[in-house]
């Protein structure tokens, strides 16, 4: 720029007052191919960003009014330093637009959400035993994002206000948990795009996504101690599972699933991936696959959990004569056979396979809870809460409880605080010893026989 334009003093008001009014800007270099320009008018002037395009060509973009007559506010009126920063930002945005145009059409919200859905489907197929897809993310994003006007917005035009408007258009009937799942999926799709297209998108896009899709109250810890059940209620659930299993012809599959959930405290997605070899009979232990949650450092593939002999005996039929790589917990799959003029349609068993979705336990669980006499609000995850609280009340270290349940100590401390306090209180009480010496009462000296006789004579 210095070989094309002469450097002029424009940093102060007094220096700018000495300049003659003209349309051509007086320039100050900001680096290779970039400059801050000042256009002097009869009264005051304004700032422009100037970029050298090569072969004697330039392009300009107006920034704002110079603080020649008015005080600078950094919004409409700029001093030199504010104008310099704004010019660099403006030129950077122009260059980013040029690169995006050269690399192809600008990515839109629809484009990146559809790509994210395809990647999620591929990941689910890879992890699924039978290639079946849950498709939860696809359904949520298709209904609540791709069907909305925000889908056709270019990513570079996405703003925090636009995301907040999208949130306000969601159905008021959605529960808080459902809305959080939708936002989490949408946020994941946008963050993935921000990494893939970072050279073509504004640098502050991750910040826009973070604040525009922030979950209200997400930082407030949710106490889960109240969801834990007493051991007696857990036994009632298992016994009810046995009854429902027999009545509905589950052949023990439902009972084993519920019993392992209760004994291990693991998630449904973990125990349904267990293999026959994961039952260590001699050690009374289940090797539960770790969850697929998180993107941190690699962790162990399994967590060893000690269980009672009753659970091992319950699982013996599932491991007898099976290969170590066979899925441990399975269930019957059915197909509906069309009815005839004399027979109604019926369901027939066709094959056995692993449990594929937690939704498969929804109906039988409702029957189990109803039979046990517990509140209908009790969910299968209560068995996990109960296991965690049981470990804490037994005095196990928080870190050990967290490790056995494939979570972090911070999560346990955040959500099970009252149980931790109760357990620590009992341990602390056991360490209390008396510290103040007991006051001894005055010694009683027995009278001698001679003194007794004198005392008797005096009282006579």
TrEMBL record:
<protein>
    <submittedName>
        <fullName>Integrase</fullName>
    </submittedName>
</protein>
<dbReference type="InterPro" id="IPR013762">
    <property type="entry name" value="Integrase-like_cat_sf"/>
</dbReference>
<dbReference type="GO" id="GO:0006310">
    <property type="term" value="P:DNA recombination"/>
</dbReference>
<feature type="domain" description="Tyr recombinase">
    <location>
        <begin position="224"/>
        <end position="432"/>
    </location>
</feature>
<dbReference type="GO" id="GO:0003677">
    <property type="term" value="F:DNA binding"/>
</dbReference>
<dbReference type="InterPro" id="IPR011010">
    <property type="entry name" value="DNA_brk_join_enz"/>
</dbReference>
<keyword id="KW-0233">DNA recombination</keyword>
<dbReference type="GO" id="GO:0015074">
    <property type="term" value="P:DNA integration"/>
</dbReference>
<dbReference type="InterPro" id="IPR002104">
    <property type="entry name" value="Integrase_catalytic"/>
</dbReference>
<dbReference type="Pfam" id="PF00589">
    <property type="entry name" value="Phage_integrase"/>
</dbReference>
């Amino acid at each position: 720029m210095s070989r094309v334009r002469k450097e002029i003093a424009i940093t102060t008001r007094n220096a700018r007052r000495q300049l003659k009014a003209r349309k051509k800007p007086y320039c100050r270099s900001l680096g290779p191919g970039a400059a801050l320009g000042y256009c002097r008018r009869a009264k005051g002037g304004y700032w422009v960003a100037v970029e050298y395009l090569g072969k004697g060509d330039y392009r300009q973009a107006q920034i704002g009014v110079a603080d020649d007559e008015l005080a600078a506010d950094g919004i409409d009126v700029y001093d030199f330093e504010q104008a310099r920063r704004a010019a660099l930002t403006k030129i950077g945005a122009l260059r980013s637009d040029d690169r995006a145009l050269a690399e192809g059409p600008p990515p839109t919200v629809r484009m990146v959400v559809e790509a994210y859905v395809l990647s999620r489907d591929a990941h689910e197929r890879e992890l699924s035993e039978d290639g079946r897809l849950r498709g939860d993310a696809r359904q949520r994003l298709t209904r609540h994002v791709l069907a909305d006007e925000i889908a056709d917005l270019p990513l570079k035009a996405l703003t925090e206000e636009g995301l907040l408007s999208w949130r306000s258009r969601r159905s008021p009937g959605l529960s808080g948990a459902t809305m959080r799942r939708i936002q989490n999926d949408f946020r994941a799709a946008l963050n993935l795009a921000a990494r893939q297209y970072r050279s073509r998108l504004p640098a502050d896009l991750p910040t826009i996504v973070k604040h525009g899709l922030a979950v209200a109250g997400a930082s407030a810890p949710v106490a889960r101690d109240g969801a834990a059940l007493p051991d007696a209620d857990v036994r009632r659930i298992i016994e009810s599972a046995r009854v429902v299993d027999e009545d509905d012809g589950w052949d023990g599959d439902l009972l084993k699933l519920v019993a392992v959930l209760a004994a291990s405290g693991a998630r449904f997605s973990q125990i349904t991936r267990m293999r026959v070899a994961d039952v260590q009979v001699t050690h009374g232990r289940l090797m539960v696959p770790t969850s697929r949650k998180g993107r941190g450092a690699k962790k162990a593939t399994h967590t060893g959990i000690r269980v009672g002999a009753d659970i091992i005996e319950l699982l013996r039929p599932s491991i007898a004569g099976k290969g170590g790589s066979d899925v441990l917990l399975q269930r019957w799959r059915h197909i509906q056979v069309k009815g005839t003029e004399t027979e109604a349609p019926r369901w027939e068993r066709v094959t056995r396979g692993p449990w594929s979705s937690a939704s498969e336990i929804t109906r039988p669980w409702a029957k189990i809870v109803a039979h046990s006499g517990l509140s209908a609000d009790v969910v299968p995850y209560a068995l996990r809460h109960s296991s965690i609280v049981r470990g804490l009340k037994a005095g196990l270290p928080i870190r050990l409880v967290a490790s056995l349940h494939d979570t972090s100590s911070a999560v346990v401390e955040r959500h099970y605080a009252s149980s931790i306090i109760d357990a620590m209180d009992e341990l602390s009480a056991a360490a209390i010893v008396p510290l103040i010496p007991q006051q001894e009462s005055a010694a009683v000296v027995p009278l001698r026989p001679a003194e007794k006789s004198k005392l008797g004579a005096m009282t006579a």
